[in-house]
TrEMBL record:
This is Transmembrane 4 L six family member 5. PANTHER family: TRANSMEMBRANE 4 L6 FAMILY MEMBER 1-RELATED, TRANSMEMBRANE 4 L6 FAMILY MEMBER 5. Its main location: membrane. It comes from Oryctolagus cuniculus (Rabbit). It is found in: Membrane. The lineage of its organism: Eukaryota, Metazoa, Chordata, Craniata, Vertebrata.
Length: 193
């Protein structure tokens, strides 16, 4: 597969992944679909890793990769798309950093558990379990408020972890692909008119 086609494939994969991260982060702001709990959200929700890291910082490399997979700078591919590939190198590097940010914050959120009310006290009650609460769903019902916050957070942060892992792989692939494209150009043939 030539560098242009690969870039386009990667870009078209990154764009929906970034949108998934943005939506997942938006849903984390409203546990159980209710806005009454915003004063008691965990720190990891407020860090907006899905919105900033897995979302916006991935959307830019996705669009850049799609553009790098298009025709060259002057529309005919005269420079072999080297300029767009160079742009894609830098944006892919930023994308890797964004995906790593999303992965680290989401992983920490899964390990610590949500902030919830147990016995009249708002705290990170699962923090001391080291993540073992994830395997024992009977503990999840201990949280009185917000209702069903543990499965809500576990589902959405797990989605963010999975999406950010894919984003790291795809941005890394595009980083290598775009670097090859800068030095070798796009392997697609010019159309003869």
């Amino acid at each position: 597969m030539c560098t242009g086609k690969c870039a386009r494939c990667v870009g078209l994969s990154l764009i929906p992944l970034s949108l998934v991260c943005i939506v997942a982060n938006a849903l984390l702001l409203v546990p159980n679909g209710e806005t009454t709990w915003t004063n008691h959200l965990s720190l990891q929700v407020w860090l907006m890793a899905g919105f900033i890291g897995g979302g916006l910082m991935i959307l830019c490399p996705g669009i850049s990769a799609v553009r790098a997979g298009g025709k060259g700078c002057c529309g005919a591919g005269c420079c072999g798309n080297r300029c767009r590939m160079l742009s894609s190198v830098f944006s892919s590097a930023i994308g890797v950093l964004g995906a790593i940010y999303c992965l680290s914050v989401s992983g920490t959120a899964l390990r610590n558990g949500p902030k919830c009310l147990i016995d009249g006290k708002w705290d990170y009650h699962f923090q001391e379990t080291g993540g073992s609460y994830l395997l024992n769903d009977t503990q999840w019902d201990l949280c009185e408020s917000p209702p069903r916050v543990v499965p809500w957070n576990v589902t959405l942060f797990s989605l963010l972890v999975a999406a950010s892992c894919l984003e790291i792989v795809l941005c890394g692939l595009q980083l290598v692909n775009a670097t090859i494209g800068v030095f070798c150009g796009d392997c697609r043939k010019k159309e003869v008119h």
